[in-house]
Amino acid sequence: MKIIVTGGAGFIGSNFVYYLLREHPEDRVVCYDALTYAGDLETLSEAMKDERFSFVRGDISSRVSVDRLFEAEKPDVVVNFAAESHVDRSITSPEIFLRTNVFGTQVLLEACRKYGVTRFHQVSTDEVYGDLPLDRPDLFFTEQTNLNASSPYSASKASADLLVHAYHRTYGVPVTISRCSNNYGPYHFPEKLIPLMILNALHDKKLPVYGDGKNVRDWLYVEDHCAAIDLVVRKGRVGEVYNIGGHNERSNIDVVRTVLKELGKPESLIEYVEDRKGHDRRYAIDPTKIHDELGWEPATRFEDGIRQTVQWYLDHRQWWEHIANGEYKRFYEQLYGEDKEKNKK
Ligand code: NAD
Ligand code: DAU
Prior knowledge:
seven-stranded parallel beta sheet, binds 2'deoxy-thymidine-5'-diphospho-alpha-D-glucose, 345 residues, two-stranded parallel sheet
């Protein structure tokens, strides 16, 4: 089988590339990625040594470039990870989220329709469901929960999901969608909560916690997400949505304290800052469907996953040092640097 992995130079996509190469020796993998600030070829350096892997640089929202890709590669399967993925960036610059996440997905769907594939899989997010209240721990997102996006990011992902459904219903494109909770693990870009806190703590810099720190996320080790997507692509029912999550809800402040403990750093580094606009309170996935239909369940406990993740960042200084010096440095200064005094609570 030939699989195109879009966005494979980013966090989850690269982990998925390595998962495929390891678990499916019979498959060929083509990574198609625009290499935005979030994509890094360094991340794929080991994959580059494998003759079953190839890399093509390109934008999913360029019809010409996507057509060229499909003509040259004739893929069986397309797994779409390519996206603008950071909620804070979507609040300051929403347009690119629409171009990449909505229009880019439509360009890929159109190519699947034109050239024919056995499966188009859309990697979506639990954020399309909006949020849940903190005082109702009995409530979870199921596949029947209404779409109720809060941020420009989640609105763009929800829009893409609707297009994926429409291409199935209207043109018969064989699609699946998975909606996963927050991932953590190797190659996580340091703008996101866990790697940001690890790197700031390592440098004895303040750890900026938004609002009261009580917002809850449902954390899943990235490898478990990759295994779930692989199952959905190979065994999931066409036209269906599968929620992915491991019942591992933690408040942000608890996650930050865990990171500090792992690194032996003091809690005095924590600094409460201005809240994110429209900040979702709680995410919680009900993974019954993927468990019952496909037999998936997470293999990594949070305590083990976070220890491995902290160790990975300690062992891969070169990877994040080179990232932290690029465009990301400017973004960090804008969000937490120059305006830091203003942002302090
Ligand atoms: P990421 O930001 O780390 O990586 C995104 C990748 O997409 C990068 O390699 C980037 O270069 C590439 N890309 C961006 N725009 C592109 C374009 N126009 N054309 C081609 N490539 C482009 O993102 P991530 O955290 O790995 O998320 C991957 C996918 O999973 C996204 O669709 C996201 O919505 C979804 N998701 C993420 C999480 C999470 O916790 N990170 C959870 C659920 C779902
Ligand atoms: O739920 C899945 C989603 O998880 C994915 O769809 C997104 O692509 C991914 O980025 C992630 O979104 P979040 O907004 O939940 O992740 P983030 O790491 O940005 O923030 C996690 C929580 O931590 C959130 O409540 C905001 C808070 N936070 C974040 C940062 C970066 C802070 O308190 N301080 C920070 O500096």
